[in-house]
Structures are given as C-alpha cells and as structure tokens.
Specification:
single chain; alpha+beta; Methane Monooxygenase Hydroxylase, Chain G, domain 1; five-stranded mixed β-barrel; 6 strands; 23% strand; globular
Length: 231
C-alpha cells in the first residue's frame, strides 16, 4: 500500500534515538535513496510490524566479514548505519512484506539494546560537514565526479528531484555527492566508506578513488587487443 508522504524534518525532530536494525551482507543504503526490501524471515516480519506501529524507521546496517556462522544470532555490524523510513509496504498472504525504504540520515551506533526476536540499537544522528574555506576545491571534485558518470547524470538528476520532494529545494553538495555515489553503482564496501564519511569533500575523494579502481578493474577484464595486421 502507498503510505503517507514523508515529513523528514518532523521525523528527525521526533526521533527517539532507538531503532530496529536490519543487518545485511551486501546492501548499504544511502540518504535520499529508495531501497526495495523483501522481508521473509519471521523475526524481521515482526520488526516491520512493530516499525509500522511505531516510528516507521529501520536502520540498515552492513554485516562485518565472517558473519555467516552467527547469522541466526547477532553477528557484528559496522557502526555507521543509514536510518530509513518506510514509504510504502505490502503484506503478502503468507505474511511476507514488500517495502520501499527511503534513506533519511546517517547515524552512528552507540549501543545495542537487548531485544527479541530482532535487534535494536541506540544511535546518534551524524550531521555532514563542509568547510566553506574549501568551496572551490569542493566544486572541482563535484564536477570531477559528475564527469566520470556521463551516462548516469539522468539517474543523479532523478535522485535529486526525489530528495527535493522530501526535503525541499537545495541540500548543498552533500546531497549531490550521495546521489552521484548511488548512480556510480559501487559495491557494498565502497558504499559503506561513502556512508561513513561525514565530510563532503572527503566523501567525494572516496568516491573518486572508488571510480578509479572500478575503471581499472574493468580494463583488466577486457580481452587483449590484437593488431589486425597480424591476422
């Protein structure tokens, strides 16, 4: 079902600081990005039901390596999470849920709260930072990132339009940096580094490094070029 429109400012102002956490090995949610989720485990069905009855918030966390033997329990997660709001949900006839979760804000896990059957954490909202004295450098790096995504600028634009509907016009370079990171289609490790970086300028540096490594990896997988004169 389609749910009520988001009021991001109200949600943040009323946030209790405690939130259920959904840890996954390969999904890192970024602010102002929508993640489709299919919830089928019993404990996470209960998590969704409780979230819908409460603040409608879920923290998406990345599992640390070696999580497999402890999956049924509480394997370690990385401390930075993205807290998202359920913007639509459908409960299927067998009890499973299909959700759309909108990333609202970065947060740092400060404590895990004893709870059953799913995990809950206490978090601190992490504001992003920018140094106005380095505005020129920030502008250069923003353009460098966008120049590396020539075929994906439309995706960046759509993400920014969605963010404007939720948060209003503006948002500064941080909003553009997150949209570019989502459009870059990076792996979970690089996405986590971007999520964990509060400073927008540093975040863009992380993104550029990730794009460089991705380009080198793509070059290495291409078949060797042959000289047609030798055929």
């Amino acid at each position: 079902m389609a749910d009520a429109p988001l009021d991001a400012d109200r949600i943040l102002a009323e946030f209790s600081g405690e939130v259920p956490v959904f840890p996954l090995p390969s999904l890192v949610l970024l602010p102002d990005v929508v993640a489709p989720l299919h919830i089928f485990e019993d404990r996470y069905r209960q998590m969704v039901a409780d979230a819908l009855d409460g603040e409608r918030l879920i923290a998406m966390a990345l599992l640390q390596p070696g999580w497999e033997p402890q999956y049924e329990g509480a394997p370690p997660i990385y401390e930075r999470v993205c807290v998202g709001s359920i913007v639509s949900h459908e409960q299927l006839s067998d009890g499973r849920y299909k959700l759309l979760l909108y990333g609202l804000f970065r947060a740092k896990v400060v404590a895990e709260i004893a709870s059953e059957p799913y995990r809950r954490v206490r978090v601190e909202v992490v504001p992003e930072t920018t140094d106005p004295r380095r505005a020129a450098e920030l502008d250069v790096r923003l353009h460098a990132v966008l120049d590396r995504l020539p075929g994906r600028r439309g995706h960046v634009g759509r993400l920014r339009q969605l963010a404007e509907k939720v948060r209003g016009v503006g948002g500064g370079p941080g909003r553009l940096a997150d949209a570019a990171a989502e459009a870059a289609d990076l792996g979970p490790e690089d996405r986590y580094k971007i999520l964990a970086e509060d400073d927008v300028l540093a975040r863009l540096s992380v993104l550029l490094d990730a794009l460089d490594r991705k380009a080198r990896s793509a070059d290495e997988t291409l078949p060797p070029r042959t000289d047609p004169r030798l055929n």
